[in-house]
Each structure stands twice: as structure tokens, then as C-alpha cells.
Amino acid sequence: MGSMSNNQVGAAVEELQGRATELTDGFHLLMDALELNGIKNIYGLLGIPVTEVGRMWQARGNNFFSFRNEQNAGYAASVAGYLTKKPGVCLTVSAPGFLNGLTALSNATTNCFPMILISGSSEREIVDLQQGDYEEMDQLNIARPFCKASFRINRPEDIGVAVARAVRTAVSGRPGGVYLDIPARLFAQTFSAEEGRKSVFAPIDPAPAQIPAAEAVKRAVDLIKGAKKPLILLGKGAAYAQCDNDIKALIEETGIPFTPMSMAKGLVSDTHPQCGAAARSMVLQESDVVVLVGARLNWLLAHGKGKTWGNTLKKFVQIDIQANEMDSNVPIAAPLVGDIQSCVNALRAGLKGMTKPVEWLKAVSEKASASRAKLAIKLKTPTPAMNYFNSLGAIREVLQTHPNTMLVNEGANALDNARMIIDQYLPRHRVDTGTWGVMGVGMGSAVAAAVETGERVVAISGDSAFGFSGMEIETITRYNLPVTVIIMNNGGVYRGDEPSPKHQISCMQFNPNTRYDLLMQAVGGYGVRVTTPEELTKALEESLASGRPTLIDAIIDPAAGVESGRIGNLNVVSQIGKK
């Protein structure tokens, strides 16, 4: 056996040393940690210093959905969190990109959607001395008021624990947004690969069940049993909980009528015989005990006060995982602190065999039937130009035959009327503007709805709302997502017929010659303009059958719509010169 030359010995030693000192870096550790926590989809917009993250993420067989604006990517990530109960992840560049994403992160926290915003940032020693680095900004502290937690990673060996903490924080208790700040140099810093593998992990039971106290359950059960006109009010928290069968069983076992908030529509079908949504004013005013399931008594429910609730003494049972939510506006007679599934099943056990409120349910059903009959006439009434009723009525009929379709909805009148007119049949199949009622969530939400569910998506938007995120139709076509965008086009903010002053077009009007359908064609999708309910029906049916990215520009009467939708009471109007 021949001896090795000096060169061969040297090469062998170098190889052994290389094996002993195998390295990883911040890029790979971040991706390892995200994958270990079940993340496959990232939404974002790439640039310095995070560009390589997107490329490497895709090279590993994962999905990166690149948007035209970070705000819309953030909205997509937040909706992904809502639909999956896992944090949606948004990746942005520093400073301006971070600020765009922060809007969506704050919206996610307000809506209780789990989301993680990851942004590259400038180096601390330069930021802290305000020495003028590229896109210098103290992002960590700016983010803190707008999310559940804000973390910075300064060492590669801390990436694993940072991601695990972000995941647990985002999904535990009341879900919400978390910010992860990563200084640029961290991505390229090297670290022992062996130690790196040990440093990443997934948290065990990040959102544990929280069982309500027995005495709290008894208090709520006694209150409900003593009610003459009980009501179950479902919020989007109930839909997020994904204990659909338990909630339906509570409703059916007790015989109590229910009404859903907007994103809870379909948790129990809108056509269910106990659904009182069409008699909403009646059930809110006349009920004596209201069981709030994943709903908050905020502005969307008139803070639990006033004529919306009949100006009568009313007792509330509130299920919420956060104790300090109780009594936020009115006294809560029976607070149930715990996760929704545990609380609902505790109520089911305590209410087993209760006398059903038959007469009350009959009165609610009669009122709801009468309201639906009146609405049906409006939906079928022909008009010289389409209005919200007959156009949305056409959409409603098509979607009745496609119950699995995800519905995304934003706008003012387009939002309020669609919520009232279009029934939902399945849980978590309606995504809209949520607690803040913000404009611009539509296109990002549509992308996430298509990606995370694999279902066809219909996104109904007012022409004003569409303007906030309209270029994301290019994102939809680029990824060939089965999304149909329907623009309710009345040519203005709220409506398009406001008179203009002599010197300039009205600040509430849009260009009447805008062709949204041609814009869709320009970015590679299919666009069509419709002016009648029959044309709208045909275009929507063809779009759903084809599954191709489509935009339907639905021209409606410029006079259709009212200012501020259904929240005109919040609009401040000058009283100068009025008698």
C-alpha cells in the first residue's frame, strides 16, 4: 500500500476540518426555524437587505408571494393567519417597507389575527447615534404600540428562540401581530451548523386550552335558563376558533336564535332556521340575555348601548379569552373567561335539557321571513341602471350554486349591501374589512384566500376601495390565482353624482372613463364590463367555470349609494349656515 503525498495529507486534513466546522448563517437559520414551525408560504416584497431570503426560500420548495406594496402583502399574511390559525408571515425591507407592513400588522392585532412581520433593519450602533444609515429607523420601538410584541434578533444563535417566541405570542391568548426586527448584517453571520440545528425548535402547545371556572359557567347557565328572549351573537373570534360543530350544537340543542357578525356569517349557515340575521334590529332590541361568542361590544355593536339595543336593561354573557375585555362598555353579568371551544362545551353541558324558547324563536323566524321577502323584491326589481340591490342579487344567485366559493368584500356601500344580501353557507368563507373597516384589504385578502384554501375567490369591491390596492391584480394574474374581482363602479366615493364646483371636479368623483376591465387585460387577466344583471350573471358564471383571473367592471347608477354606508351617524358635518 503506497504512502500518501504531503499534498494528499494536507487535503485530507482540510476535508476533516471542514466537516468539523460545517457552518450555517442567518439566512438558513431563519428559514429552518420558519419551516420547523409549519410555515410554507411567505407574503412580502423583496429588496435590500432581504432579497436573498425570498430566493433561497423558493429554492427550498416553499412559496413566496411577491406583492406590489408591502401593505397588501401584510393584509394577505393576516388573512392567512385567520384562515389557518397559524401565524401568517410577511417579509419586508427596512424603513418605508416596514412602515407599509406595520399598517397591516396593526390591523391584524386589532382583528385578533395571528401574524408575524419580519423586516430587515439598519445596524443598531448607527441607528442609536442617528448617524444617517441607509433607511435608518428605530423599527423595534416604532412597532411596539401596534402589536402584541416586538423582538429584535442580534445573534444568529437567537433566531430559533425568537421565531418560537413570535409564534407562541401570535397565537396564544387573544391572537395578534408580532414584529421581528433583523439587522442586515445578521443574515450573513455564520454559526456552527450543528449548534444551529440545536437552536431551532417549535413551541409545544403554543395556544393551550383555557378552561372557564366552574362557578362562572354556572352563573352563565342560570342566566340563560332564566331568559325569556335569549340570543346568541357570533363574532369572527368564533369563526377563528374552528370549533364549528360545537357552536352549531349549542345553538340547536338550546333552540336559541342566533345572529352573526360579518365574518362569522356561514359559521352556521345563513339559511339555518334559527338564524335571526334578517331580523337583526328586532333581536338586538328585544332580547333580554345576549350570549357573546367571540364578539366584542365595540362600535360595531353600538358599544352595547342606546337604541340599537332597545334602550332597555339587557344582560350579557360574554365568552372571551381575555379577562380585561369584560365590562369594556357595559357591565357583563356573566363573564366566561376561556377559549371558545372549552366555554361553549361547558355551556352545552350545563344547558342540557333546557326548555327551548319556542315562542321567541317563532317570532324571530316570522320577522326574518318577512324581511327576506321584502329584500327579494328589491333584488329582482329592474332599474334603468343597475343599483346595489339587483347587481348584488345577481351575484347572490350565482354564489348559491357555488357555496364553497370564498367571498372577499370591502368598500362602503359595496361592503354593507353585500353583507346584507349575499348568504354564506360555510365557516370562514367570508373575509372583509374587519374591526377597523379599513379600505384596501381586498386584493391582499383575495390572494391569501386563494392560496390558503385552494378555493375559487370572488372579491367584491367598491371602485373607491379598489383604488387602494388595485395593482395587486397583477399579483393575482402572475400567480394565476382563481380570483374574480367585481368592482361595483358608481364613479365616486360613496356615489358619483355629486355636483362639482366651477373651478375643479368634485373631490368625491372619479374619472367616469376609467376602464378597470382594460386594466385587468393589460396585466394578463380577463376583463369585462357589464351594465345589466343578466350580463353580470353570465360573466360571473363564466369566470367561476374557467377559474382564470378575471375582473368584472360592474357599472351601476352613479346615484346609487349613501355617504358612509351604514355608519353615516359617525360622519361629522359642518353646521355653519344651517338653520
**CATH homologous superfamily of the largest domain?**
Thiamin diphosphate (ThDP)-binding fold, Pyr/PP domains
Strand content: 15-25%
Total count of domains: 3
**What is the general shape?**
globular
Quickly count the helices. Answer: 23
Query: Which CATH first-tier class of the largest domain would you pick?
Result: Alpha Beta
CATH topology of the largest domain: Rossmann fold
Task: Write down the overall mean pLDDT.
Answer: 94
Strand order of the largest sheet: 3-2-4-5-7-6
Q: Which spans of ≥5 residues are poorly predicted at pLDDT below 50?
A: none
Helix content: 40-55%
Q: By helix and strand content, what is the structural category?
A: alpha/beta
Largest sheet: 6 strands, parallel
- CA-to-CA gap between the ends? 112 Å
Count of individual beta strands = 19
CATH architecture of the largest domain: 3-Layer(aba) Sandwich
**Rg of Cα set:** 27 Å
